[in-house]
Every structure is written in C-alpha cells, then in structure tokens.
Amino acid sequence: MVTSSQPVPPLGLTLSHLSHSYEMPSGARSVLDDVSLDVEPGEFIALIGPSGCGKSTLLRLVAGLETPDTGTLLADGASITGPDPSRIIMFQDPTLYPWRTVHSNISLGLDIRGEKNPEAVAAAIRLVGLEEFSRAWPHQLSGGMAQRVALARALINSPRMLLLDEPLGKLDSLTRLAMQTKLYRLWKSQGFTALMVTHDVEEALLLASRVIVFSPRPARILADIHVDWPEPRHREDPRLQSLRAHILEQLETGISPLATA
C-alpha cells in the first residue's frame, strides 16, 4: 500500500510498432500509426499532440483496456494483455461516487478486493493534503479537491505506473498550478513511472523528463524531447519559452523534426 516513505518500484515500458484503428460507419479510422517508444522506470513522460490524434487511445492500450491492431506492448518485459493494478489510469473527470465520502471513495479499490487497511487510506489522504475533508461528500469539494481524491484513490493501489489522461484539464488556472506542484512532488516521492496526456505545452515542460510530440491522426511520433534542466523549473526560464515556441510550431506544421533539448 502507498505510504509517504515507501516508494514503489517503477515500471518500465516498451511500445513497438503500435498501430490501432476504430470501426466507424464509414469504415476503419486509424488513430495510431507505427508508434514505438521506450520508457525507463521512473520517467515522467508527457504526451502532446492535436486533439483527437490518438494520445488517449495510447493510454488505454498501455492500461490494458484495449488491444492494439498490430505491435507489442511490454511492461518490464512482460506482454500487456489486460488491466493490472500496477498500471492505473486517471481520467480528466474524477468520477467520484456521490454516496461515498472522501475516505470511502479513496478506499474503493481496497473494498472491492475485500481488504481493510485504514492506515493506507489515511496515508493516501495525507499525501494529497485532505486530512480535514476525509468525511466530506463529493458535492462539498472543489474541482481541485475532487481531483486530489481521484489521485489518492489511484495511489492507494501503489501503482508502478500512473497513466494520466488530462487530469488537470478542467481545473481553473490557480488550482491547476497548485495541482501541478502536488503531482510533481508525489511523482518524486512515490517513485512511480508517469505517462500524462496534456494539451498544455508549458505544463509538459514543467513536469516531464521527456515530452513526446505527436502528429495529427493517425498519431506518429514527431519528436522525443529530453528535458534535463535542473530543478526547480520556472515558467520564466528562456529555455522553456524557446522550446515551448518550437513545440507549438511543430504542432502547427506537423512535419518539421525537432532537435532534442
């Protein structure tokens, strides 16, 4: 179970020549085209690309919720054939159960498995700073607090990889900034591997150790950018602003390769 002092062993990931499509009334629609990517254990990878290009589909494949048409997915060398508690996905909508308190929403995974571990629930609540709201109901929470509950619900399963599908996308700007800091600190302290879909280029450069830039659908990798600047990073850093401009240009054109930062 998750604790503030016992990091999990992070998960490595290998994607080889992934392609995927969906059947539509007009025929098959390709969303991923020959995507290959290696993720080292403990990395924070941001996935950037045009809306609808296939980023969220890639997360679903890694989560084991769908199977690719072609290609292989390996987690620590083992084939991904379905969902697993080591790989937890967190969506933009926190999807809290309105009839369960903060405490019981966070303990949901444990309850389903028939496990009782109040210490683990309390530790998860402390990690996201909601000690005073453990008995609150979802309708009493702000958007940022609800997302922190969803984050704690994911972390209580001690995931080795956290898959984040625009988890901060619906938050107001101030809450989003605070949640970026919270997410970054949890990644550093808990040690999991992170893959995050975001449309915010600045957010990607502030949080991630690598930024993967995708083409329009069907998604191909246009650039793999290593962000190895010293911490803490600052929005005013000229390097960040310059690279942000390059990525935005890349997203606009969808053709010119980017140099590694």
TrEMBL record:
Keyword Secreted tagged: no
Family: Belongs to the ABC transporter superfamily.
Highest rank taxon of the organism: Bacteria
Annotated GO MF terms: ATP binding; ATP hydrolysis activity
Gene source species: Gluconobacter kanchanaburiensis NBRC 103587
Name this protein carries in UniProt: ABC transporter ATP-binding protein
Domain ABC transporter: 13-241
InterPro entries (UniProt xref): AAA+_ATPase (IPR003593), ABC_transporter-like_ATP-bd (IPR003439), ABC_transporter-like_CS (IPR017871), ABC_transporter_ATP-bind (IPR050166), P-loop_NTPase (IPR027417)
Alphabetical keyword list: ATP-binding, Cell membrane, Membrane, Nucleotide-binding, Translocase, Transport
